[in-house]
């Protein structure tokens, strides 16, 4: 009996090495959790202590680069064809971007991080007020422009090369200007393997920690009696099933719907805490905090704490860890936001990715974090600070100090669940996209398989305590990927420069005098390949005849002119002498350029070499010249006279003396 062959779109060059590496690391973390975690932690710590400057400079470069694109000349370039329109409304776009970009982290750290900074011994020397300000400032720093710049660089590179160059939505495509067609081979596979493994590790650890927080919230509400593996397995089974259903439904249905619902629920919870919490304090501290962040922006950006020994461990465990975490997540988030950003301009993309999420995060972290600090200082008498080591429960303990705390906790759990589902389903989409080299249609079993693999490994590592090891592995991969992202910038700059030159290139100077009377001859000249012999013939007939006729007419009008043919037979020039100022010079010389391999066989059927020869004009004042191969003799004479008229006009203006007075007339002597 012959079994039906299972249809798949998976790329063997990507999926096989990726699965081998993922399974190997996961098994090591599961079978030898303590040993693996200890080894990976040592590697991570070595990187954080000795190579933290790579993260600092890389993230700084990302911020500067994106701001330059937002305000610079490339901002109007569209992510797609010039007439492309966005596929999603602005609200849906921002909602999905948010769900993928920060998700569970907003719920997990909005209270935990400010409280942990506030209660940290590093800041104990300051007053309560100063500690509260520092807690807010560093939280803004970690969740602000720098974090979203990391996502923005990857997302923009992917969107640009995918929709503008029409390449696969894959990280390998971002290297096209540097590697060209090599991205289709082993180099491209290696890049995608790295992206797939990094994405898988990041999502698995995040989902594992998210399950723990959901379990903690349900226990706080007395819905579950305790936090243990049995209940966590049940939670994973339910939520991964929902994520699979959402992912199978597609971006336009499941992910879009859940993201829109979640952003509404987030706004409801935010408004609830703002109104029922210490409202005046929240609004005032938000204003003060944004000003404090702006004032310290550059010192925060470049600070490596090299002169502050007591703050170095905090710097490694927070700032550097965050930069590594965001970088390790950037393939996943970048691919997802690129997928939903077709049709946006670069300026619109960067402004939305950098500014809108940053401002929202500032509001969110202030409303929850500063409220928690206020309660801790004024009502709880340090009770929340004492829970700094239990971040899973901090959000729910904080909500107990507000009216209707049960309702708020239920909304919080619903939001975390939806964030969990949207992170998982968008993660399935991204991983399948990487593993299939962006296949448009894949069998549903592949999506289900990614969900089962994510949920199964998350539970396995939760059971044996291997999540910390996997998290360390994720952070380690951030170092090489930060270098890859810097190469993305190099590649993107090169491509954008070509892009702008292509669309802004004007008609050749030689086309200005065309009337259409000799169009058949023009066409023959355009499609024929110009080798060195052909161009030399043009030089010895058209150029030499034009210059000789001009010289004769100049002399007839009492203007001293000379035609000079250099020792190189491929260069002619006509000069008008002047003893006090620069001579007028108009020359033509033979130049060559490399023919693009993409049009070598088709557009130039007579070509036998990779070089194209052409006659190029040049001038005495070193202005750039141009191809004159399509000029007739009379048109070339006319072009010389246009430049001579310009020369006379400049000579007559006194303000130009500094440019025209020169002893550089030796070429006629």
UniProtKB/TrEMBL annotation:
PROSITE patterns in UniProt: BCCT
Keywords, comma-separated and alphabetical: Cell membrane, Membrane, Transmembrane, Transmembrane helix, Transport
InterPro entries registered for this protein in UniProt: BCCT_CS, BCCT_transptr
Bilayer-crossing regions: 12-35, 47-69, 90-111, 140-163, 190-211, 231-251, 263-283, 320-338, 350-375, 401-424, 445-462, 474-496
GO CC annotation terms, alphabetical: plasma membrane
Membrane topology designation: Multi-pass membrane protein
Protein name according to UniProt: Choline/glycine/proline betaine transport protein
